Every structure is written in structure tokens, then in C-alpha cells.
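Please, is this right?
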Amino acid sequence: MISTAGLPVALSKTISEANALGRHNQVRRVFSVALIAFLILGTVSSVVMFRFAGPLAAWQGDSLAVYAVKALAFSCLFVCAMSAFRGYAQGHSNMVPTAVSQIIEALFKLVVGLALAWYLVKIGKGSEISAAGAIFGVTVSGLFALLYLVFSHLRRQNALRGRDEPDGSGAILANLARIAIPITLSSSIQPITSYLDTVQVQTRLQSALGMTETAAVSLYGAYQKAITIYNLPPSFMVALAASVIPAVSAACARRDRKSGGVLSESALRMAALVAFPAGIGLAVLASPIMKLLYPSTNLEVAGPALAILGIASIFVCIMLLGNSILQANGFVNLPIIVMFLGSIVKLSVNYYLVGQPEIGIKGAPVGTLLCFSLIALLELVIIKRVIPYAPRYGRVFVKPAAAALIMGAAVRVFYSLLSRLLLAVGFATDAGALSRIGNALGTFLAIGAGMIVYFALVLLLKAISREDLDFVPKGEKIAKFLHISK
């Protein structure tokens, strides 16, 4: 989080402000100072993670994870270096290098991770070694994504020379730290809380409910699969949040607060247009989705967990955009307090609910929902009070929420009717339940129907404007094709 949410955000904000004022020499100096700082941070992080892999794995209640921690350690160096190049490009409002490098990361992570895991299982290695092979794909993917970013930077580097006198390295580093430290703290609270959640839930299952480490890890594994799917909607927000900060920061540097407000409102509405249907879709199709993707997992845990986490993902998306809007407007400390309060709520609820025998691990997603709903709502209140030309929440949330709720009801009814039809024509198990193929057909068709319904409702309700599409590649052509005039 330090290298992906703190320093690169500070870098993109600083560079965008310098660009807006025509300080090209300042831009170059800022990048060179940041790159050195990122490399030092990455090297130290990798060494510490590798050296203390054993204690880190044992502390979270899964001592066999030591090999996976070591395999992942040196990805820290690559991620830190990547963040410098991504922050530089984002400061120039160029999201292409970030997007392409993320695609490269995903492909190598998938191919290398799966290939190593398959090979290690085939030659008879234990699950802990096979898991390390799978996670090593992350390290390899980071290396290749970094190589692309270096090549892209050298090829696209801005040749403009300014007449401005750049600040000294010490002053630049101090300014980056002044912006980055609060952003890092607020951004780090979420992963730190997630890490503590991993430790707390597994140890609570063992101490309060008397489970063995193996049983607790297995049960948490089913819950973790739901977490994996729940993280999908917020992942779409990362790029949007990253693009908001330099754009709004540049407007603020030009003292054009009104344009900054328009950009913030459009970004928040785009987030709502994605978050509401994704979250509600996950909630209404939670069990079918988990059965489709993880047929051998404990569906009694994973299905209900995803239903709650689907709603929670909506608030996570709003929180991410809220953080970016506050940070872009210079309010970098407020998100820290709000995130801290939410984390206290999550850990407190977890401790109580997971320790109840009749609830157990099913209490963990409830803590997540309460945590992020509190954070998102508090941030929206703060934005309204402290930011000039604050977003109008009625225009931002009402229409996307209405369209998503109608879509969710339609999807649920459609899947239920389709399931009965598929059972009637023979897609059933011996126990009378829907077969895996039948469930896959029903799930995919229900998702497709939901997309059609939601898209139609968005156009019918005029839930998207031409300004919103400015955040989308080829947005002007899309607006013209859909006859969106304003």
C-alpha cells in the first residue's frame, strides 16, 4: 500500500500540479527523486519480508505459508519500482502504461502461477510448496510488467525543457512525504485490517470454538474464496480513483474549483454505475457463483459470505473514490480518522460474532459490511461539508441504485425460473439439485440477462451524462452512438 497508494499518488498529484503550472524541470526532478526513494523502499521491504517469512506466517496462524511468503517477497521491489513509472504517467493523465502493465501482470501471474502449481503437484510436492509455486507467478509478473514500464517510459519520455528552477531534492522528498504519509496511513489501514482479520478470525476459531489449526485454516479458506470474488468490483475502482487525483489536483492548482467539482461528481457517478450492479449482482447470485467457481468448497460458508460481501463491495467502491476526492482537494488527513474508526468496528464485530458457536465464521462478513458502510457514509458527509462544489448525491446515486435494484430482482427471478426449467429437462444431480453444468448455464444466462436489463435502465433513466463518459476511452464516440447529449 505504501508503494501503490501512498507514494505514487503523491507523485502523480505533484507532477500534475507542476504540469498545470508549466514547470517541466520540476516534473523531471520530482520523478528522479521519487524513483530513488521507491527503489530503496522496495529493496528494504523485500529483504525484511524474505528474512522474517517464518514469523510472519506463524503469526497469522498458518505456519506452512512460510514458503509462499518467501516466494512473494521480491515482488515488493518490482511493485515499488513499477509504482514510480505509473505515478509519472498518471501525473501526465496517461493511464495507458498502467493499464498495459496490469494486463501483463495478470497474464504472467495466471500462466506462470498455474504452470508452476500444476508441475509441483504433478511431481508430488506438498500443498505448501505448490502454493509457493502459484504465488511465485506474482513475482515473475511484476518483473515483466516493470520491464514494459521502463521501456514505455524511455520511449514516451517528455522532451520538453522548461525555464523554471526545480526545487531541491530534499524539499521535493519532504513534499512527497507530506502528501504520501497521510495517504499511505489511510490506504494501509484497509490491508492491515484485512491482515488482522485473517489472524483474528483463524485464532478466534481456534481459541473460542476449540478448532484445530487445520480445521480453522480450512474453514477460513472457504471464506477467503468469497473474499476473492468480493474484491473484483473494487478492483475496477483503482484506475478510476488514480485518474481522479491528478485531474482534480491540476484543476485546484489552476484555482478552478468548479471544474474540480464537476470531475469529482462524474467520477463518483461512474463508480456508482459500476459498483451498484456488481455488488447487487454478487449478492443475489452468491451461491450460484460460488458453486460455479469453487464447486468443491464449503458452500454453506462461502455462499452466505459472498451475499453479504457483495453489498459491502458497493461501500468499498464509494470509499475508494471518496478517499481520492478528499486527497485531490488537499484533505489527506481526514480519511485516516474515518478508516481507523471503521477498522475498530470491523475487528470488534469480528471478535464478538466469530466467537459465538452458532455464528462462527459467518460473522466475519458482517464485520466487513459494517466497517465499510460506516467509512463510506462518513466520507460522503465530510466531502459535502469541506469541499467547494461538492458532488450532488441525488444525481450521483439515486438512478444507478434504482436501476441496480430492479436488475437484481429481475436476475433473481430469472435464475429461479431458469433453474426449475433446467431441472425439468435433466440438468440435475442424483440428490435432485442443479448439476454443475446446469448451474453454469443458469448463472451465465442470468448474468447476461442482468446486463441487458441494467444497460436498458441506465439509458431509460438517463443515469449517465456526456461528462461521465469523458472518463472512458472513446467516450465521445460512445456518447454519440447512444445519443447522450449532456
In short: The mean pLDDT is 84. The chain has two domains: 1-160, 182-486. The CA atoms of residues 86 and 98 lie 5 Å apart. The two ends are 37 Å apart (CA to CA).
